[in-house]
Fold:
Amino acid sequence: MTRKQKRLSVILGGLVFLGAATGLTFYALGQKASYFYMPGDLATATVQPGQRIRLGGLVEKGTIQRGQGATVAFSVTDTHKSVKVTYTGILPDLFREEQGVITEGTFGADGVFVADSVLAKHDERYMPKEVADGLKAKGVWQESKSE
Amino acid sequence: MVETGHFALVLAFALSLVQTIVPLVGARLDNQRLMAVGGPVAVTGFALTALSFAALASAYATSDFSLANVWENSHSLQPMIYKITGTWGNHEGSMLLWVLILTFFGALVAAFGSNLPASLRANVLAVQGAIGAAFFLFILATSNPFIRLNPAPIEGRDLNPILQDLGLAIHPPLLYLGYVGFSICFSFSVAALIEGRIDASWARWVRPWTLVAWMFLTGGIAMGSYWAYYELGWGGFWFWDPVENASFMPWLAGTALLHSAIVMEKRSALKIWTLLLAILTFSLSLLGTFLVRSGVLTSVHAFATDPTRGVFILCILTLFIGGSLALFALRASRLTAGGLFHPISREGALVLNNLFLTTATATVLVGTLYPLVVEAFSADKISVGAPFFNLTFAPLMVPLLVMVPFGPLLAWKRGDILAVAQRLMAAFAASLLAMLVTALFISGATVLAALGVGLAVWLVLGALTDLAVKAGFGNVSVGIMARRLAGLPRSVFGTALAHMGLGLTVLGIVGTLCFGTEKILSMHPGETVELSGHTLRFAGIYPAQGPNYSEDRGRFELIGPAGNPVGEISSAKRFYPVRQMTTTESGIKTLGLSQLYISLGDEGKDGSVVVRLWWKPLVTLIWGGGLMMMAGAAMSLMDRRLRVGAPSRRRKRIEVPASAGMP
Structure:
């Protein structure tokens, strides 16, 4: 190979590498990013059972039920609609009624959301940003809740 | 004292403006006296910032609640250590720590840079001053920690209980020393662009600074990871959370910079690339500061947020990143490219390293920012988490890790890949053996787990092979080998240590992810549970009282083979009345390199408690490997080669920050 050919092949190799990495990145973004929904959004969105999503809202008052062992059921609401969620594990310390929460998981065939992770922030003043924005959009946000 | 601190901060801001303008003008006019202003101003600016920081710290130590910042983040009943660490356990104080470290590095350049060309030194200090000015203004305008309350409240609102931990004393200072340490590399790069040339002293200066910053950043990330691991009670060491990515991106870019700087120093090739990488690394540090401090992304780590601050930091970000990249575009063509090399050579291997590391940085960047972009252009809200990074980051890392042992064994300019492969045969055979043993003899081992173990062994043995080859193993007697080893440059040991540390971290990750076990169950006092061959008995819940909290401590006994308790683990639910906040204190028992991890859940009505237990094999290696990487960097810093000009002075300059940060 001449010097020019060598240089060309190095550059080509680099481009192929970068192209593969870019392709993989976009493929992964399409496949692995999970969308965030509030309970009210679910009527219009098409979420397949088994599709991984994040469901956020407030923990509805009086819905927390402790089942067998470490299984907990509760409802997540945006004050208009609510969705039943089950979760097996230890709830975050800040998980409580009428507090913002983000759950991640999939819908079962029976329409119950099976969460494998539940997030409530450490900071007492905190409301998950997505939840706060969603509540604002639905006009049920009260500033005092953020404090 | 408080007013003095406030005044000192304003004065430091004013001085940073002087430090920006006067040396810059001096270098432009070639005026020695104007250029010489930079040094003393930088040192004074550091002294004033330190005074300001000390004033805030003393307000915290004495619980002076007339300061809004102290009132919001402290309480008179807190133990003294948390009162003091609380100084930077909040937005305002942590930004003050940020500029304190920035001015500290500026002062180091001023104090020990007397052997630098005067104009380069002046320009470096000017750029450093400009970064300082922007952040001083940010603090004074949006995040002033010295705002008074009148009348002063009697009691404070307590530090966020999550932060009431020794981790707060270690993690942020280390992380900032790393983040902000890269500012020096940035300032050197911009100064070189302003001057339009890169001279020999540039190369010799940038590498040690990169090493220092990288060492602290490595430590900061490792300690942060361990802190999150035991404090959050989730048993995870890395969540691919935006805030973690914010520190990981500069680390990846900094690692690339560390390696390209070697090529530049040794062979004066890759000059322009190294310069760009230095700019990018600090830009990512700035981006990290923005992501963490503006709260634009949802994170599992707690930070108070305020949109005006976000906009301000975004402006700083745009100014410095945009400005430096524009300058690069304008001036880079003026810089001369360096020496040529064959693709198969040490240089070639380091270029490959850079290719992989920068691509990995880019994927992390895309994954971190993609939710923001989607949210800006559509109504959708998405989150990008571990599944994305596992799919994109891991395939980039595996080939890179496979190549690591080859790099140091290849010769400069033109290497012989077959000869290197031959030397690595023993390490390769041993890794293959480790893989087979894992796959055949460890129950539950997947193919991936076996490959992971093999990779880790390959990295560790590869690093040792490098040392053995350089000592002449097999060709000379043991005595000569020992003498040769002792005569090797420290940086060779540094490389070997860092690469071995990497291998240990990989081993820890593989061990924990592939061989760890987990159980969630509800237990009554007196019940026992079996976990990966360990028997634990739940003794019960015992209430206790701390200085500013009350807790319910769940005690567990580790039962030995004879049926008697051989150890105790306790996990607690703590209630902090001031903030009405509950936290979980995880219970951890270290057995060899592995850990038993217990996290307490809610109490049931019948006296049972939900308990989550993990067996985490080899987990301590994750952070142990990080410490070893730090040790490698420290070892490299002690290399004779890095001492320029007057050797005794150089040596002092490098070793002070190196030894001061070792935990």
Summary: Confidence is low (pLDDT under 50) at residues 122-126, 143-147 of chain A. Chain A is about 25% helix and 30% strand. Chain A has two domains: 1-33, 35-146. The longest strand of chain A covers residues 100-107.
